[in-house]
Design goal:
Elements: E1 2-3, H1 14-20, H2 29-37, E2 47-48, H3 56-61, E3 64-68, H4 74-86, E4 90-94, H5 98-108, E5 112-115, H6 122-131, E6 136-139, E7 164-167, E8 170-171, H7 182-186, E9 191-192, H8 195-207, E10 213-216, H9 225-241, E11 247-252, H10 260-268, E12 271-279, H11 283-288, H12 299-308, E13 312-319, H13 328-339, E14 344-348, H14 356-363, H15 391-405, H16 408-421, H17 426-432, H18 449-463, H19 469-482, H20 487-521
Parallel strand pairs: 1-2, 3-4, 4-5, 5-6, 7-10, 10-11, 11-12, 12-13, 13-14
Antiparallel strand pairs: 8-9
Helix pairs in contact: 4-5, 8-9, 9-10, 13-15, 15-20, 16-19, 16-20, 18-19, 18-20
């Protein structure tokens, strides 16, 4: 099983990974799940090219090569298929990318292409491999019940290569945003693993020695709030009984900020970070995009509620939506200033195949020659369609957002204010109230050599050589004095920001090239 590399983007977090001693961020959960579905007498090796190149000895050893990936990994996927075919191997291709790259995968040399979720396809795959069939597409007739999904084969990865492990508790999302491909790939009705299944996966990670971050890779963790509560009610006592071995981060809709009870349960279960699609502050654009959940209540109040009650919000914004106003970027800046979000993702709209957006733009003749089939990277600095307002205005506005919101001094100031407003940890609140912690299994904060090394590197980058070095030291002292239990979280936010500063230079260069190209066409 081979997972191709990702192209460089914000989510690569290259600097953080290098400084933390990791090869990459997250293992390929899809392949680990497929591995658990295959016959137990099969010998399986997994190679993640984000961590290291696939050894030639593994190519020689293999009878069958299985590859999987996302659209943004297109070039790597096709190169792996061609490489396996050149070595005379049978090739099986699957994953989200097959929905739009089926023909390309067959042309590259795949014997079997799987379209759909593995739980519904493995029996047919085994039959096709046994019969020697080739050049075929196997498509799932239905979406599987996740009660049939096994514990992934976490034992196949080198855990020390990764910054986080990943588990999935549900698939699908109840919202049908025009630009998102989740509904096309996984459906609008969320399907869930039982709390027992999720605990079994965490037990496996615990037995394998993992004691770090875990990404819950659901498309929307609160797609069904009652299901989320039921899972958290099991997770909270399990975490306490095991000494809180994991820190969780996930994805959720903005409605989480309007549910204080759910926020409190998540933080009690040791959730630290939640990715939220804010997209734009233009209600008209949100309505046209079908993102109706973002116009039901104040997004500013929702984000502030999540932050104040212990969650780091990674806010995602999109420029280029149909119906957005000429001052869309200014309103995004005002929102970021009002919420002090330090961790933000700035995207250009990318029409993804099989989405309602893609279909509409195709009907209207607005897809450019590149379309979106070779994309998926939303920070590339160019447009694959004709936006409703002038393309040069969209790109210039996008450039302005990267220039101003990712400016180091401004980002540091936002991180400081954000974490000052965050309530102290539960342990700090108990200590302040004079309540002794009665649970001897609760982990005590301890300083490791790796923490010292990371702090030294961060302090060198931001506290010595950066123009904002005086702000860095002043804010460090301020957090230590005014909200000390959030010091570690604050420093983690700055560590991630270092990657943003690097990506900023890359993105600005690409935007400038795109603007020059547009002027040349004019």
């Amino acid at each position: 099983m081979v997972h191709p590399g990702f192209p460089y983007s914000y989510w690569s977090l290259d600097r953080l990974c290098r400084q933390s001693g990791w090869k990459t961020l997250i293992p390929p959960l899809g392949l680990l799940t497929v591995a658990a579905l295959l016959p137990r007498d099969w010998q399986i090796r997994l190679a993640d090219e984000n961590a290291r190149p696939t050894p030639e000895a593994d190519w020689t050893w293999a009878d069958v090569v299985m590859v999987s990936g996302m659209l943004v990994q297109k070039e790597g996927l096709l190169a792996l298929i061609r490489g396996a075919r050149a070595r005379g191997k049978r090739v099986v291709a699957g994953g989200p990318a097959t929905s739009s790259l089926t023909d390309a995968m067959l042309a590259a040399g795949s014997d079997i292409v799987l379209r759909g979720e593995a739980e519904a396809l493995v029996p047919a795959l085994l039959e096709a491999l046994a019969s020697g069939r080739s050049g075929i597409v196997l498509e799932a007739a239905e979406r599987p019940d996740l009660a049939d999904s096994p514990v992934p084969r976490f034992d196949l990865v080198r855990m020390e290569d990764y910054g986080a492990m990943a588990v999935q508790t549900s698939r699908g999302c109840p919202h049908d945003c025009e630009f998102c491909d989740v509904v096309a790939l996984l459906g609008r009705r969320p399907r869930h693993k039982t709390p027992d299944q999720v605990i079994a996966e965490l037990e496996q990670l615990y037995r394998l020695g993992w004691r770090h971050e875990v990404f819950i890779s659901d498309d929307n963790f609160i797609g069904s709030p009652p299901r989320a509560r039921a899972l958290l009610d099991r997770l909270i006592p399990w975490m306490k009984a095991h000494g809180e071995p994991f820190v969780f981060w996930t994805q959720a809709s903005i409605r989480l900020g309007r549910d204080r009870d759910l926020i409190d349960r998540m933080t009690e279960a040791n959730f630290s970070t939640v990715f939220v699609g804010i997209e734009t502050l233009d209600d008209n654009a949100l309505q046209q995009a079908g993102k109706h959940q973002n116009v039901r209540g104040s997004m500013e109040e929702s984000v502030n509620a999540m932050g104040a009650n212990g969650l780091n919000v990674v806010g995602s914004f999109v420029l280029g939506l149909d119906g957005e106003s000429p001052d869309a970027e200014r309103r995004i800046e005002e929102f970021v200033a009002a919420t002090d979000l330090p961790q933000i993702v700035l995207n250009l709209l990318v029409p993804l195949p099989n989405t309602r957006l893609w279909q509409r733009l195709a009907r209207e003749g607005r897809l450019l020659e590149t379309g979106g089939t070779d994309q998926g990277n939303t920070t590339i600095g160019r447009l694959a369609y004709r936006p409703s307002r002038p393309a040069a205005d969209v790109l210039a506005g996008y450039r302005g957002l990267w220039t101003r919101l990712m400016e180091p001094s401004d980002l540091l100031a936002r991180a400081y204010r954000y974490h000052l407003r965050m309530r102290p940890t539960r342990a700090a609140l108990r200590a302040a109230a004079g309540v002794k912690d009665a649970d001897p299994r609760r982990p005590q904060a301890r300083i490791r050599w790796r923490d010292v090394e990371l702090f030294a590197r961060l302090s060198w980058q931001l506290g010595v050589i950066a123009p904002c070095r005086w702000r860095y030291w002043a804010q460090l002292a301020g957090i230590r004095r005014r909200n000390p239990s959030r010091l570690r979280r604050y420093l983690g936010s700055l560590a991630m920001a270092e990657d943003l500063f690097v990506v900023r230079r890359v993105v600005l260069g690409k935007i400038d090239a795109s603007l020059c190209e547009l002027r040349g066409e004019a």
